[in-house]
Specification:
538 residues, alpha/beta, 3 domains, 49% helix
C-alpha cells in the first residue's frame, strides 16, 4: 500500500453528530440499560453463535434473490464461493442500507459499504467464530420514491443530475438519456490521470435500458465485489409473501405507530428527541408507476391514491393476493429487513442509528430480533496540495472542524506583529478593570458599579476598534485568506461535512496509487468511534 498520512479525531470534535449518537457510541450507562449492549466485536460473535435461523425458506429466498440480481453481470467480481455460502445455516449477514443513489452518492455511502466489509472481515478473523461465516451485505432501498434525493451527486463541485420522466419506486426506473449525467461527468473529470478508467466503469454500469437497481448492483460489484460484498433488494413479491405476518399485523393492529411513539417517548424521557414521526399506517401501495401512502379512513375503509378498499378484510385479501404491492416506509422497512436477514449487525449513519434506537419497541412488538446497531466509519480526505496548505497556515488539528471565521481569526492572530490578538488585549483590559473595581470597592462599595460601567464603555470602544483593525488586516492578507477559505470549502463544501457532499469520483480520478479505495477495502480500522483524516500522497 502507498504511504498515506492518517490521524484520528474524536467524533465530538467534529460538531457533526447529535448527543444521542455520541452518547450511544460512547456507552453512556442510561442508553446501555435501555438498548442491547452488544456492539463490541466479542458480543456480536457471541450473539451470532446463539442465533437460530428462523426459517430456511427465508434464507433460501434471500439467496435466490441475490443470485438473480447478479445474473445481469457477465463476470462478477464476487467469487462463486461467497455466493454459494449465502443459503448456508452458518452464514450471518453484516448489513448496511441505502437508496440506489446516482454514481454511488456522497462519500459517506462509500464509507458505509467499507464499514460492513471491514466488520465482516474482522468477524471472520475472530478466534471464537467457530464455523460461522460473515457476509457483508448492502440492502439497496430501491422502493424509495424520492428522486430528488437520489437523482444527483456532486463531483468536484459540479452537480450532476438524472431527471427521468418516470414515477414510482426508483429502483425500477429505467436508465434513459444516461449522457445527461455521463457527459458532464466526463467534462468535470477532464484529463486527470485516472479519469478514463472511472469513466469506462460509469458507462458500463449506467447503461441505457437497464434499471437503476441493476446499475447499482453492477456498480457495487465493480467496487466491492472482490471484498465479498453482495447487493440485495427486498422489492420482490416472493420475499414479501414470506413476511406476510408483518403486513397482517400492521393492517389489523396498526401496531408500528404506537410502538414507534413509545420509542420516541423513551428517548424524550432520557433527554433526547424523537427521530421520526410515524404515521397511523406505515405502508405504501406500490404500482409500476406510483408508490402511494396507505391510509385507513374514518369509515373503516382503506385508501391509497384513488384506490379504495371497503374494510380491513378487503385490503387484507388484496395484500394476500398481491404481497409485492405492499411497500414498507421508514418505520417498517428496518423490521422487514431484519425479518429476512437476521443480521449479525447493522451499520448505519448518524440519522439511521438514531431512528433505529427509536424503533426498538417496534421490533419487540413484532417478535423480531433487534440487531447490534453500529455507527458507520467517518473520514475526511485531503490531497497532497491541501495538506501542504494546511501546514503552510499552521492549522493544528484542533482547528480542523471550526468555522471559516475561526480559521481566519487564528491565521491573523498568528500573523500579528505584536503577538497579541484583539481578544487577548480585550481580556487584559477586562482583568485590569475588574481588579480596579475590587480595589475601589474596598474604599467605597459604590465605586464598584461606577468602574464596571466605565468598563462597559471601554469594551464597546475596543470592540469597535478591533473590528476596524480586523477589516484592515483581512484586506492586507486578502490573498492568503482566500486560499484559506478555499481549503475550508474543500473540507466543508456548501458548509457541510465533506463526506455528506462530495462524490468519491472527484477524488479517485487523481488517485494514481489507488490509495483511497485500497484503504477502504483493505485497511479500514473499524469499528471505531473516531473520524479518520486521510491525507493522500502526491
Amino acid at each position: 500500500m502507498a504511504k498515506i498520512s492518517l490521524s484520528y479525531h474524536a467524533l465530538r470534535e467534529t460538531r457533526a453528530f447529535s448527543n444521542l449518537v455520541l452518547d450511544y457510541i460512547e456507552g453512556k450507562s442510561s442508553l446501555r440499560e435501555a438498548f442491547p449492549d452488544n456492539t463490541k466485536v466479542d458480543s456480536i460473535i457471541e450473539a451470532a453463535q446463539l442465533q437460530q435461523v428462523r426459517d430456511l425458506s427465508i434464507r433460501h429466498g434471500v439467496a435466490n434473490r441475490i443470485h438473480e440480481l447478479y445474473a445481469c453481470i457477465e463476470e462478477p467480481k464476487i467469487d462463486t464461493q461467497q455466493m454459494e455460502r449465502l443459503s448456508h445455516e452458518n452464514t450471518r449477514f453484516v448489513v448496511t442500507a441505502h437508496q440506489p443513489i446516482l454514481l454511488g452518492g456522497p462519500l459517506y455511502v462509500l464509507y458505509k459499504l467499507s464499514s460492513v466489509v471491514a466488520l465482516a472481515k474482522r468477524l471472520n478473523e475472530h478466534p471464537n467464530k467457530k464455523d460461522l461465516h460473515f457476509v457483508p451485505l448492502y440492502w439497496v432501498g430501491d422502493e424509495d420514491h424520492d428522486l430528488e434525493e437520489i437523482g444527483h451527486c456532486y463531483v468536484l463541485g459540479k452537480k450532476l443530475s438524472w431527471t427521468p420522466n418516470q414515477r414510482g419506486a426508483t429502483g425500477r426506473m429505467l436508465i434513459e438519456n444516461a449522457e445527461e449525467f455521463l457527459t458532464p461527468l466526463e467534462a468535470v473529470l477532464g484529463n486527470r490521470p485516472e479519469s478514463a478508467r472511472w469513466m469506462r466503469l460509469a458507462r458500463d454500469c449506467y447503461r441505457n435500458g437497464i434499471t437503476l437497481l441493476e446499475a447499482t448492483v453492477r456498480w457495487t460489484d465493480a467496487l466491492f465485489g472482490s471484498a465479498g460484498l453482495v447487493a440485495f433488494s427486498g422489492d420482490d413479491p416472493r420475499l414479501k409473501k414470506l413476511a406476510i405476518q408483518l403486513w397482517e399485523k400492521e393492517i389489523s393492529e396498526r401496531f408500528s405507530a404506537s410502538a414507534a411513539h413509545k420509542g420516541g417517548e423513551k428517548l424524550i424521557e432520557m433527554g433526547y428527541h424523537a427521530q421520526i414521526t410515524p404515521r397511523e399506517v406505515n405502508l405504501f401501495w406500490l404500482e409500476e408507476e406510483s408508490r402511494m401512502r396507505m391510509v385507513r379512513r374514518e369509515d373503516g375503509g382503506w385508501q391509497a391514491g384513488e384506490q379504495y378498499w371497503a374494510d380491513d378484510q378487503d385490503i387484507w385479501h388484496q395484500a394476500e393476493a398481491n404481497p409485492g404491492k405492499l411497500s414498507p416506509n421508514v418505520v417498517l422497512r428496518p423490521l422487514y429487513q431484519e425479518y429476512l436477514l437476521q443480521s449479525a449487525a447493522f451499520v448505519g449513519g448518524p440519522a439511521e442509528v438514531a431512528y433505529w434506537l427509536q424503533l426498538h419497541p417496534v421490533f419487540q412488538e413484532a417478535g423480531v430480533d433487534f440487531p447490534p446497531v453500529l455507527l458507520r466509519a467517518s473520514m475526511m480526505l485531503m490531497d497532497a496540495a491541501m495538506g501542504k496548505r494546511r501546514d503552510q497556515y499552521g492549522l493544528v488539528d484542533a482547528l480542523l472542524f471550526q468555522s471559516k471565521a475561526e480559521w481566519i481569526r487564528y491565521y491573523l492572530d498568528q500573523e500579528s506583529e505584536s503577538g497579541l490578538s484583539d481578544l487577548v488585549l480585550l481580556d487584559n483590559v477586562r482583568r485590569g478593570y475588574t481588579r480596579l473595581s475590587e480595589e475601589a470597592a474596598e474604599i467605597d462599595p459604590g465605586l464598584r458599579s461606577y468602574v464596571l460601567a466605565e468598563l462597559n464603555k471601554v469594551e464597546k470602544s475596543i470592540e469597535s476598534i478591533a473590528q476596524r483593525v480586523l477589516k484592515a488586516r483581512k484586506k492586507k492578507n486578502e490573498v492568503q485568506i482566500n486560499r484559506l477559505q478555499q481549503l475550508h470549502d474543500r473540507l466543508f463544501p456548501d458548509g457541510k461535512p465533506q463526506e455528506r457532499h462530495d462524490n468519491f469520483l472527484g477524488w479517485v480520478a487523481s488517485d494514481t496509487k489507488n490509495e483511497l479505495m485500497d484503504h477502504c477495502l483493505n485497511h479500514l480500522d473499524y469499528p471505531t468511534n473516531k473520524l479518520a483524516l486521510l491525507q493522500l500522497s502526491e
